């Protein structure tokens, strides 16, 4: 049996704010049935743009229910900007800690919060703040490998099992406790590849193209950004994904995501290849 | 939301997790204690204490042989666990037939066999054929027949499944396997003491059992090895167990094992009437009072003590945590339960949908349970399920996001 804190058990046995919220301003649904947890988070804003009501419905283990329950308590009374700063670690800390194997429950809470806020901004036709970019979590604690690293490796090299992931990223080579989570990353990636969300056979940009990308980024784009006290750096080109790092004022700019998607990507699509996507790498 | 209350909550835990492990029978404890305190000798020693220990091991062997219908003491090797017995059977056979590089087993084996076969497959150049099961957990004997090859070293099949209790037709399988002259291993860890086993008239060459599943101690097991079966030892060293398994005998553990087997033989009838009735009573009551739940596995071909029930739309760990607060010990095939984060490979292999598999609970009873306990558990279940279903986003209309 897990060593749950009293607070986890309290929120599991007496969950707060369970149920459906009619006419919610934001609804986030995350989780996967194969993993065995899923969470729907709903909130309403008052006239001061603060969350006045929050409710949840969770399919999952004790700590998933407890994480959802405490999350609703944590966001009520906060503005969206304040709430967006809540990390999965904050959720776990608020519960007095979670067993390491159960940290993914707190991650699910954070993800549902992101989804619900994105839902709100989308419905309102507002720009999505860059604080809502998915927080990357460490998946393998033994070798400190992040989920994004595993994801990228699976997608890029079409990795099929955990052993391959370990070979490419080291993740899963230690205590093996993350094998379950890695398997889900693999499953999710293959599902995405199968459904065409990620194009399996997309031809990588040619050599000439990658030169052109480099030139555009380093000259036209970077120059424009520098006038605002920012800068951009090309990290790598993977297939048709262009990974960039925002520097200076751009790194902390709340609208950097809009800059990347709305302007940098548009430039590259127009001048190089219409299938290019630009991805921001956080340092 | 209404608070969960368990008005008739007993002071003592109600233990319904006997496929995980069992309480050691008092008679077995009584018999083993002198071998911890007084007769602590090494059976290999020539002196009086050694002889007492040696005699105790001989008697234990007789008792275990009696439960399994084994004819000769030469055919029974004591080991340190059911897993060790499985490893010894499989590795020992492969070593005895180095030219044979193929084994046949099933997708629902206990990790002791499954993990080993995966290891052999990945790192030792052994080819493994994994036999499928249908939605009720049954094997396809035609698939088995087709899988046998000239270089098949052995077929390893469990007698009964630890999670669902589904019994495989192990003698029918044995006939098919022996027609081809292939070594036949059966993991009977869950079946021993619950199903009648008689090696003297069986097709089985190698049979694994474990003491702690039948009210003996942990750390003790046995492997039946039919006379004439070629088998290399796994643990090599001293001459114990006639060189088949080195290491000083766990004398107190074996004494308890022997007594537990003697009791199991006496209780076999009871197991299939009293315990079966308790299990059926529990199952029927739950099915009658809780909506959207069903039994996993072929209902009429199961161990008498086991029921595995899926409760749709909720996750098993929550059920177990609440059962624990209600002083009930059971287990789950869900991904999130203690120790392992993997969802049950057995339910997965049966094709049970995730929405049901995650909320599956196994109750495994024993002769130490009572009708009153069953009635209490059956009374508690509906409110636990209702409570968790009031939290989940899923229901009959909506089964996924």
What does this structure look like?
The complex is a heterodimer of chains A (283) and B (401). Chain A is α+β, with helices and mostly antiparallel strands and 283 residues long. Helix content of chain A is 46%, strand content 18%. Chain A has helices at 6-13, 62-75, 80-83, 88-94, 103-124, 147-157, 162-169, 179-195, 207-226, 249-252, 256-271; strands at 26-32, 37-45, 51-59, 138-140, 145-146, 230-238, 241-248, 277-280. In chain A, strands 1-2-3 form a three-stranded antiparallel beta sheet. A three-stranded mixed beta sheet of chain A has the order 6-7-8. Chain A is globular, with a radius of gyration of 20 Å. By secondary structure, chain B is an alpha/beta fold. Chain B has two domains: 26-266, Type I PLP-dependent aspartate aminotransferase-like (Major domain) (Aspartate Aminotransferase, domain 2), CATH 3.40.640; 267-391, Aspartate Aminotransferase, domain 1 (Alpha-Beta Complex). Helices cover 39% and strands 14% of the residues of chain B. Chain B is built from eleven helices and 13 strands. Chain B has helices at residues 26-37, 48-68, 82-96, 111-123, 141-147, 170-179, 251-289, 316-325, 345-349, 354-357, 371-389, and strands spanning 14-15, 76-79, 102-106, 127-131, 152-158, 183-187, 206-210, 221-225, 293-295, 306-311, 328-329, 331-332, 360-364. In chain B, the strands form three sheets. Chain B has a seven-stranded mixed beta sheet with strand order 2-8-7-6-5-3-4, sandwiched between helices. In chain B, strands 9-10-13-12 form a four-stranded antiparallel beta sheet, with helices on one face. The longest helix of chain B is centred in the last third of the chain and has 39 residues, at 251-289. Chain B is globular. The model of chain B has no long low-confidence stretch (mean pLDDT 95). At the A-B interface, helix 1, strand 1, strand 2, strand 3 and helix 2 of A face helix 8 of B.
């Amino acid at each position: 049996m897990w060593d749950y804190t009293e607070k986890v058990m309290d929120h599991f046995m007496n969950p707060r704010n369970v149920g459906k919220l009619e006419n919610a301003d934001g609804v986030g649904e995350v989780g996967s049935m194969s993993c065995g947890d899923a969470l729907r988070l709903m909130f309403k804003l008052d006239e001061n743009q603060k969350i006045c009501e929050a409710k949840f419905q969770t399919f999952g283990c004790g700590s998933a229910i407890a994480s959802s329950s405490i999350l609703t308590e944590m966001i009520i009374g906060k503005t969206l900007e304040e709430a967006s700063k809540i990390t999965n670690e904050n959720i776990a800390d608020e519960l007095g800690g979670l067993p390491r194997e159960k940290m993914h429950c707190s991650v699910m809470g954070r993800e549902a919060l992101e989804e619900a806020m994105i839902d709100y901004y989308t419905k309102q036709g507002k720009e999505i703040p860059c604080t809502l970019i998915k927080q990357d979590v460490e998946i393998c604690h033994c070798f400190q490998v992040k989920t994004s690293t595993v994801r990228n490796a699976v997608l890029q090299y079409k990795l099929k099992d955990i052993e391959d992931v370990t070979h490419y990223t080291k993740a899963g080579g230690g205590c093996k406790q993350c094998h379950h989570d890695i398997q889900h990353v693999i499953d999710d990636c293959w599902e995405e590849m199968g459904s065409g969300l990620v194009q399996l056979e997309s031809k990588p940009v040619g050599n000439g193209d990658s030169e052109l990308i480099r030139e555009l980024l380093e000259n036209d784009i970077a120059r424009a950004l520098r006038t605002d006290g920012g800068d951009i750096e090309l990290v790598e080109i993977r297939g048709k994904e262009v990974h960039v790092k925002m520097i200076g004022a751009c790194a902390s700019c709340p609208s950097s995501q809009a800059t990347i998607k709305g302007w940098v990507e548009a430039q590259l699509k127009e001048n190089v290849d219409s299938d290019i996507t630009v991805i921001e790498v956080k340092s | 939301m209404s608070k969960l209350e368990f008005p008739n909550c007993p002071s003592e835990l109600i233990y319904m997790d006997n496929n995980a492990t069992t309480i050691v029978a008092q008679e077995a404890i009584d018999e083993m204690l002198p071998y911890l305190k007084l007769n602590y000798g090494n059976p290999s020693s020539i002196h009086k204490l050694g002889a007492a220990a040696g005699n105790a091991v001989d008697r234990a062997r007789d008792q275990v042989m009696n439960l399994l219908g084994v004819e000769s003491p030469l055919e029974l090797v004591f080991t340190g666990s059911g897993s060790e017995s499985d490893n010894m059977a499989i590795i020992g056979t492969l070593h005895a037939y180095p030219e044979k590089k193929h084994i046949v087993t099933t997708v629902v084996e206990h990790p002791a066999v499954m993990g080993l076969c995966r290891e052999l497959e990945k790192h030792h150049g052994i080819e493994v054929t994994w036999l499928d099961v249908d939605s009720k957990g049954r094997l396809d004997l035609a698939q088995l027949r087709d899988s046998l090859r000239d270089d098949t070293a052995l077929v390893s099949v469990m007698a009964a499944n630890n999670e669902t209790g589904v019994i495989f037709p192990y003698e029918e399988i044995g006939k098919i396997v022996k027609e081809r002259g292939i070594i036949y291993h059966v993991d009977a860890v869950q079946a021993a003491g619950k199903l009648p086993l008689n090696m003297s008239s069986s097709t089985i060459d190698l049979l694994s059992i474990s003491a702690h599943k039948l009210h003996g101690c942990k750390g003790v097991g046995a492997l039946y090895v039919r006379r004439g079966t070629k088998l290399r030892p796994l643990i090599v060293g001293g001459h114990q167990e006639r060189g088949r398994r080195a290491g000083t005998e766990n004398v107190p553990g074996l004494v308890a094992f022997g007594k537990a087997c003697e009791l199991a033989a006496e209780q076999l009838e009871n197991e299939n009437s009293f315990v079966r009735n308790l299990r059926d009573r529990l199952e029927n009551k739950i099915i009658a009072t809780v909506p959207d739940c069903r039994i996993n596995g072929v209902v009429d071909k199961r161990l008498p003590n086991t029921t595995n029930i899926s409760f749709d739309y909720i996750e098993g760990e929550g059920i177990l945590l609440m059962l624990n607060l209600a002083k009930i010990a059971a287990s789950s095939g869900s991904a999130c339960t203690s120790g392992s984060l993997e969802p049950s490979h057995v339910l997965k292999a049966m094709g049970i949908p995730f929405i049901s598999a995650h909320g599956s609970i196994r109750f495994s009873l024993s002769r130490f349970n009572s009708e009153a306990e069953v009635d209490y558990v059956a009374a508690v279940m509906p409110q636990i399920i209702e409570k968790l279903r009031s939290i989940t986003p899923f229901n009959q209309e909506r089964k996924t996001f």
